[in-house]
Fold this protein.
Amino acid sequence: MIVLVAACGDDGVSRAVGARCDTERDCDERCLAPSTAYPDGFCSLSCESSDACPSDATCADVEGGVCLFSCVFPEDCAFLGPGWTCREQDLRVDPSRKVKVCLGA
Amino acid sequence: MSRRVITTLALVAIVGGASATARADTTTAVTADLEDQVVGAEVGLAGGLGRTPGGLRVAGRYLYQLSDQDWFDGSASFTYGSGGAECFRDRMNELACDHGVLDGSAVEITATVRRMFPARGAFRPFARAGLGVGVVRFNDDDLTGLAFPLHLGGGLRARVSPRVAIVAQAELVVGLAVFGDDLGVESQLGMAVTAGAEFGL
């Protein structure tokens, strides 16, 4: 758990994954625009497997496959700001498997 | 007789064809192989941390003799770096940037004093210190700042003909830059290594 909490720390936020955004210009590749699913917006990378994501993120089967921060407990996502929590989603590479990632509540 | 007069006489001697004798004298006289006005051009590499631009450095230089050992050394330089957008807003909505050492670009003018030291063989060492003012730009981040760096450096100068010398120098740059947006005042820290030619007027 300590490892996961550290992985979800503020240091892991970058233009690739985790920065706030309004448009694609704010990110290296993709901006998940501000909404209840992505409060304040969320920079991410398109992916087909977690190999395409930073080590502290997982390729979840949402938005056609995007990297989202891995988590275990809701508090692990608190560094992303109000409205974020830890939710179960399908794994992009194998939708029959579930992963826990940070998403809007 | 002042050293400046000696310098002038030495230069006249060089121009008059007594270069062999003049070169022998320069091993002891500090000013004998540097005219009272000099222009130069140089190229090199600059590297900067944080919001200090780095990349290819091209500069023009003008020197004017102030005293036996010191010359005013003014320059205009251009730094052309690489790099894409590196700034983002963190989750606290504060602007954060992660520029590399060869990112960004800059235009700068400097006013420094160059102190020449006695020659050691074919090379004459010098030290340089002064201030600059410049515009710093990170184009892909649409980030522009006004920089006020302190320049500290030194180098070697070697005469290759009566009025031409080659120069190699390195400098450390420390200062502050004021940026727009939310970035505010950022420190400047960089290094540059350049080589070029100087021509006596």
Q: What stands out?
A: Residues 25 and 31 of chain A are 8 Å apart (CA to CA). Residues 1-10 of chain A have pLDDT under 50 and may be disordered. Chain A has one domain: 2-104. The radius of gyration of chain A is 12 Å.
